[in-house]
Amino acid sequence: MAHLTEKLPDERGRFGRFGGRYVPETLIPALMELEAAYEWFRADPGFRQELDYYQRHYVGRPTPLYQAARLGELVGATIYLKREDLAHTGAHKINNALGQALLARRLGKRRIIAETGAGQHGVATATVCAMLGLQCVVYMGAEDVRRQALNVRRMRLLGAEVRAVATGSQTLKDAINEAIRDWVTNVHDTYYLIGSVVGPHPYPRIVRDFQAVIGQEARQQVLDQAGRLPDYVVACVGGGSNALGIFHGFLADPAVRLVGVEAAGQGTETGAHAASLVAGRPGVLHGAYTYLLQDEAGQVRETHSVAPGLDYPAVGPEHSFLKETGRVTYVAVDDAAALAAFRTLARTEGILPALEAAHAIAYALELGRQEPGRLILINLSGRGDKDLDLVPVE
Amino acid sequence: MTPGRIDELFCRLKTQNRLGLFTYVTVGYPDLTAGWELARLVLDAGADLLELGIPFSDPLADGATIQRASYHALRAGGRPEHALELAARLRAAGYGQPLVVMTYFNPVVTQGEDRFCAELAAAGIDGLIVPDLPPDEAGPILEAARRRRVDLIFLAAPNSPEDRLRKVAAAASGFIYCVSLTGVTGARDTLAPGLDRFLRRVRAVSGLPLAVGFGISRPEQVRALRGLADAVVVGSGLIDRVEATPPEQWPAEIRAYIAGLRAAAADG
């Protein structure tokens, strides 16, 4: 866990001018407690051993790095996939859910709440709560309950209570609002296990640290297999946890270009999209100052993406910082291109990707066509079983 | 400097030996025209201070009632400038009660803290409450509010440790908004246990007046706060009644409701 020593955020929870802690006073003591506990446990060998044990024997880490030869041939590039879809529960979300649940248990909190969009974070949280004997309540937008029904069933089978949120756009943003309201009410005995690198300090840092294992493994694996660093690392960005996880393995390698792929939905010009970094401007939502899709009066806009996990109007504050420093390039891919990439990966490699990750694949294919001969590493953040109802069979 | 309307109000409440009755309305709810009527009715009925809530798309400190009101207000076209218009209209009509804007931080930071405070002051608004802005993040707006002579009112929570209460007290002006419970806004049947101890803890670190809000909607709750607080804030309880009453009965309903609360704030 050498990756748990990053310089940012600063002591005020800032990545440059982004981040911070914009929450009701009631939550401040809980955030300060969490910050102190995290500082303590990240340096505690016992905690690190415990995390390492479960990562290896429960989650199945390290996840493989796989050279997608037929996919690469299609566009004339060398493509490697970091197979987070093969982690237990089928996505990278378990890395963070496990770390935070172990933290919650050490804090003596027996009731865990979480929000979920695509349902992958909800499933991961329900899973580790079952394994650790913790009570679990998951908030999920009513629209997402409908379009990710398989994951709702999984969570319920795992013993979690799924609460459908019928306010606002009925998606991830509203699920987070409701989870925060629950937390404000039950802060004395409840741990809020947030699922992405969003929210008030110290969450963006904690989630990033627990996801950084992806990039750490991937860097070594690509050196072992390809004998060199990739030209590009590509990952999808909703809140942005899988992307930060893999990017952190390569931030210190200036020759490696990092690309975050947001959801262009029906097109960024239509308004029906979720590309906060590409098309938004800074504002405050869910406790952080960060890029945000909003109208001129500061009302948060409704978003659209075929991928529920990307259907979110804000983004982790560290991404806002990485955009402004220029270290990471952010682009957007629309629904149609993501759906096409889903089919392409299925037919060339026998892998059904999550629709979220399909955005990264779509952009990598475009990149491969534009710049033949490149070595491209894609974070395949999750598997696509949950999306079978959303992808038409031709 | 002459004392502001908020300071004057608390002086008067002290000499009258009663709790102030503060009421909250969501600007643009149920619609822009009816919202103006509601604001006047509430003040005519005896509210001592009016909080004008600028609706926000993601009101994460609010319970079901104000979430619903915010949603309807936004659908009706409610915007920050409507709060300014409403305030200016009330002032033009001769209402002298303190007016305080309550909103989340994003509509503020979107306009810029200084411009936002300047516009509040120009509209005759005396204070600003931002529930998702703790003092730690308030540096720029504290400066702007001071310059424009707008009181920046911070919230204290029952689970705030001593050092946080001191931080809130050091940043606040006008009064301290004491959140009666750990939770979101919305009418409750009783007062949270331990509220008296919490209010004494705030008193011990600040000489500012204390207003108690979140969950307060009934005369018996108001009565129980006499001697402990300086004012109570009623929001969801009022909106619940508006929702349940046809518009033609609002004047009678609101008069009776406010009169009941006022009586509880002054008797004994």
Rounded radius of gyration of chain B (Å):
17 Å
Looking across the biggest beta sheet of chain B, what order are the strands in? 5-4-3-2-1-9-8-7-6
- Strand runs of chain A, count: 14
Helix coverage percent of chain A = 40-55%
% residues in beta strands of chain B: 5-15%
In which range does the helix fraction of chain B lie?
40-55%
Q: What is the chains' assembly state?
A: heterodimer
**Large-scale geometry of chain B:** globular
Order of helices and strands of chain A: EEHHEHEHEHEHHEHEHHEHEHEEHEHHE
Largest sheet of chain A: 6 strands, mixed
What is the overall number of helices of chain B?
Answer: 12
What is the CATH C-level name of chain B? Alpha Beta
* Spatial sequence of strands, sheet with the most strands of chain A: 3-4-14-9-10-13
Structure, briefly:
The complex is a heterodimer of chains A (394) and B (268). By secondary structure, chain A is of the alpha/beta class.
Explain this structure to me?
The complex is a heterodimer of chains A (394) and B (268). Chain A has 394 residues and is an alpha/beta fold. Helix content of chain A is 43%, strand content 18%. Chain A is built from 15 helices and 14 strands. Chain A has helices spanning 28-42, 45-59, 69-75, 93-106, 120-132, 142-147, 149-157, 172-186, 203-211, 213-226, 241-247, 276-279, 317-325, 335-349, 355-370, and strands at 14-15, 18-19, 65-67, 78-83, 111-116, 135-141, 161-165, 190-192, 232-236, 257-265, 281-285, 288-292, 328-334, 375-380. In chain A, helix 4 (93-106) packs parallel to helix 5, helix 10 (213-226) crosses helix 11 (241-247) and helix 14 packs across helix 15. The relative contact order of chain A is 0.17. Chain B is of the alpha/beta class. Chain B has a single domain, classed as TIM Barrel (Alpha-Beta Barrel). In chain B, strands 5-4-3-2-1-9-8-7-6 form a 9-stranded parallel sheet. In chain B, helix 2 (32-44) links the parallel strand 1 and strand 2. The model of chain B has no long low-confidence stretch (mean pLDDT 96). The chains are: A alpha/beta (394), B alpha/beta (268). Chains A and B meet through helix 8 and strand 11 of A and helix 3, helix 5 and strand 6 of B.
